[in-house]
Write a structure and sequence with these properties.
With about 775 residues, the protein is α+β, with helices and mostly antiparallel strands. About 45% of the residues lie in helices and about 20% in strands. The longest helix is centred in the last third of the chain and has 27 residues, at about 680-705. The structure holds a DNA duplex (14 and 10 nucleotides).
Length: about 775
DNA sequence: ATGCCTCGAGTTCA
DNA sequence: CTCGAGGCAT
């Protein structure tokens, strides 16, 4: 093979070939008007790859030959989305669409607003990043915040341009859209697979999702995938039009494929007409769709509408009715969850619904079973609700066997035999076995180890079951004393128990590696944050959000684990139920022991900090007293007491005279005295007094301890940081006392400018504000972070 | 008391 | 994703 310098004619020929191939792709995928036949196209491609093979120095990153697929590259790196990838609210009926449009109209004070209307493709959402017009990276949606880098696979998709056309392309442009598998491509692929005995794809949607997750892009290249854009992410160094529809039109100019079915519509009537039109075309379309999407067209209006949680208020997905199928109920089983919730689950004769095989369907609770009157042996209609989760819609009564008996919730837990109890007014029945119940224990450990809590990679439900069954792990703290030997021994015993063939020497090596990895993952999980740790504990009613609140308000588990419920209630969104649940959890000595054990075995909460100033503001005698719910002691009375007495202890110790002197009516004073006289009342007051003291100490310690290097400094972040996300940087700067602001002013202490920083950098220079590059920030953080 | 909204918990399949 | 229920405003 000639490896010398490329001669000029070869270089020119390569450039020419690339231009012609790009052009053919553009015409085919974007303009939808193929010009040259496939054979011709293949010939051009072959010539180019041969040319590149003999002259490797001619290969460019955006060469169409990259589409054949590079060699496997290992795992997918996580990619943080600077601008979150959205999920949409759903509407199923015209009424819901009307409600949506009405809400929009009210908020933006316009009637019959213009919507960009689009088909909702049934594929996989991805984000493509172009820098200077060249495709540099593509990522899956992931959880919306962080996706996976699937660039190598995306490069193989011919409708994704590797280079944008036109002169007005922004320096950085993130194009968002859907990777899907066209129906004919899906059929042909499966035909081919059936012919040579390969594995067929279940449906186009899974085909698309699965294809992008191939570690070997050469496999992805074989799959018939395509792409349509429908949204925009980060834009830097350039401007987009002021409406969504104009942006999509611009995309087309730049060579990004946008479905020809996108349109604009006015008001409810326009949207519903579009829904009807697309619905009628649905079956003849070359790709699968599961509904249509309405987006408020004007970006200014979108901004005004904003978000509720993770979903925008300016868009909604109007779904087509879910597909339904008929099948048979073989059994109704009871599942025990982390909190002991006993959930009836229908075991079904497998049936294809909406493209997947369904074998289980949750029946939620006994009420639901009764409402549907589902019995074992019944024929039922199953639907894939929303998108994924199968649901039993109704029983086909005509087909009910004569001997079918109504189902009832068992009285005892199928796992541990404890009573199953349903509280008054609750819809769920619970196993009362708590942690004596193996199922609850396994679920609790599984929750503890899961991604959003301690994040122990590789510790799945199956291993937890084995560890628990074989007695290696009883409480979550036991995870942290597991050794490699323990794990290997455990696996051996599990294999023997299951009758799995004893491991050969080669497989023995694998088991060792597995155990080593798991021990390492467990070790890695030892360092965690307070919010994750709290969430991991699995306290009833304390999920991700409440854990975050608790962490920011109190800052230290040493405090939280001793606080009585009246103090916990001071936190917004924590009411009676939640506060009592937290209190009750920590009152259980067993739970305290587990926490001590965790710390003793090396678990470290890294972000402990003093209680928040907000808490200090709320933590008054009056506020705490008002939480108790003592008869007659209203908020107003509590305030009087707060003014009259310095401390909770003083209130608790006050006699009748002192209370009357504070201006309390006789009845109120009596009620309070009665409360204090009760053992329970006195005990709770004592705990509150103790809690307030602890908090006061922790807070006063703050004055001396808090010497953040960046106290009083205001920092602005701009541009793209590469080593850490903007959020990350923000958190870490704030941890050092800085305030991270959104815009530059003369009060700004310094600006951190990443790649492709824009107007904020200009402004900083103009105002003479200190400017740091990313390296300076990293160095600073490294030096000053604990 | 009543209604809205957000959060928690449980769940399916590949 | 969906349902139920807790928190809070009215």
């Amino acid at each position: 093979m000639t490896r010398g310098k490329a001669d000029a004619p070869s270089a020119a020929r390569a450039a020419d070939l690339r231009a012609r191939i790009d052009d053919a792709n553009h015409r085919y995928h974007v303009l939808d008007e193929p010009e040259i036949p496939d054979i011709e196209y293949d010939k051009l491609m072959r010539e180019l790859s041969e040319l590149e093979a003999t002259h490797p120095e001619l290969v460019t990153a955006d060469s169409p030959t990259a589409r054949v697929g590079a060699a496997p590259s290992g795992a997918f790196a996580p990619v943080p989305h600077e601008i979150r990838m959205l999920s949409l609210a759903n509407a199923f009926t015209p009424d819901e669409v009307e409600d949506f449009v009405r809400r929009v109209e009210q908020r933006i004070e316009k009637t019959d607003p213009v919507f960009s209307v689009e088909p909702k493709f049934d594929g996989l959402a991805i984000s493509l990043r172009y820098e200077d017009g060249v495709f540099v990276r593509g990522a899956t949606r992931g959880d919306g915040e962080t996706g996976e880098d699937v660039s190598a696979n995306l490069r193989t998709i011919r409708s994704i341009p590797l280079r944008l056309r036109g002169t007005d392309v922004p320096t950085v442009l993130e194009v968002r859209g859907e990777v899907y598998m066209p129906r004919d491509g899906f059929e042909k692929y499966n035909e081919r697979m059936r012919a040579n005995g390969g594995k067929v794809l279940v449906n186009p949607r899974n085909g698309a999702a699965g294809s992008l997750r191939h570690l070997d892009p050469r496999l992805t290249a074989q799959r018939p995938l395509a792409f349509y854009a429908y949204a925009v992410g980060v834009v830097e160094g350039g401007a987009l039009p002021t409406t969504h529809s104009a942006t999509l039109a611009k995309f087309r100019e730049w060579g990004v494929p946008v479905s020809a079915l996108v349109d604009t519509a006015h008001g409810v009537a326009g949207c519903l007409a579009y829904y009807a039109r697309i619905g009628a075309e649905r079956d003849t379309l070359p790709f699968d769709i599961d509904g249509v999407v309405y987006k408020v067209d004007d970006y200014a209006d979108q901004r005004e509408l904003g978000f509720v949680g993770r979903t925008p208020r300016w868009a909604i997905a109007h779904k087509f009715p879910a597909q339904e199928q008929q099948t048979l109920i073989e059994a109704i089983e009871v599942n025990i969850g982390r909190t002991g919730a006993a959930t009836p689950t229908a075991r079904l004769v497998p049936v294809h619904v909406g493209g997947v095989t369904v074998t289980n369907a949750t029946l939620h609770n006994a009420d639901q079973v009764a409402r549907l009157d589902v019995r074992i042996g019944d024929t039922v209609i199953v639907r894939r609700a929303g998108d994924v989760i199968p649901e039993v819609v109704r029983v086909v009564m005509e087909l009910r066997p004569a001997n079918a008996k109504p189902w009832t919730m068992p009285a005892t837990c199928p796992i541990c035999g404890s009573d199953i109890v349903r509280e008054e007014g609750e819809s769920v029945a619970r196993c009362t076995g708590e942690l004596t119940c193996a199922a609850q224990r396994v679920q609790a450990i599984f929750h503890f180890a899961s991604r959003r809590t301690m994040d122990i990679d590789g510790l799945g439900e199956r291993y937890i079951e084995d560890l628990s069954d074989l007695g290696y792990v009883v409480s979550v703290a036991d995870l942290y004393k597991l050794t490699v030997d323990d794990l290997i021994a455990m696996k051996q015993r599990a294999d023997e128990r299951d009758g799995t063939i004893p491991e050969t020497t080669k497989a023995g090596k694998v088991a060792t590696k597995w155990a080593e990895n798991l021990v390492e993952a467990i070790d890695k999980s030892r360092r965690t944050t307070l919010d994750r740790f709290l969430y991991a504990l699995g306290i009833q009613h304390v999920g991700e959000s409440t854990s975050k609140s608790l962490a920011t308000w109190f800052g230290d588990l040493a405090l939280i684990r001793h606080l009585p419920w009246p103090i916990l209630k001071l936190v917004p969104d924590i009411g009676n139920e939640v506060a009592h649940a937290i209190d009750a959890f920590f009152q259980q000595s067993g739970n305290q022991t587990v926490i001590d054990d965790l710390f003793a075995r090396g678990v470290v909460v890294t972000d402990t900090h003093p209680p928040s100033p907000k808490l200090r503001a709320e933590l008054t005698v009056a506020n705490v007293l008002a939480q108790f719910g003592i008869a007659k002691v209203t908020t107003k009375r509590a305030e009087q007491l707060g003014i009259a007495f310095e401390s909770l202890a003083a209130v608790a110790g006050a006699n009748a005279d002192a209370l009357l002197e504070a201006g309390l009516p006789t009845e109120t004073a009596e009620s309070l005295l009665t409360y204090v006289a009760m053992d329970e009342g006195r005990a709770l007051l004592a705990r509150c007094i103790d809690g307030m003291t602890r908090l006061a100490e922790a807070t006063s310690a703050q004055a001396t301890v808090e010497t953040g290097v960046l106290d009083g400094k205001t920092v602005v972040l701009t541009g793209t940081l590469s080593a850490l996300t903007r959020d990350d940087a923000k958190v870490r700067l704030e941890a050092l006392g800085a305030k991270v602001a959104g815009s530059v002013s003369k009060k700004t202490s310094f600006v951190v400018a990443g790649e492709a920083a824009g107007s904020k950098l200009d402004k900083a220079q103009e105002l003479g504000v200190e400017i740091w590059d990313e390296a300076a920030l990293l160095a600073f953080l490294a030096k000053h972070s604990a």
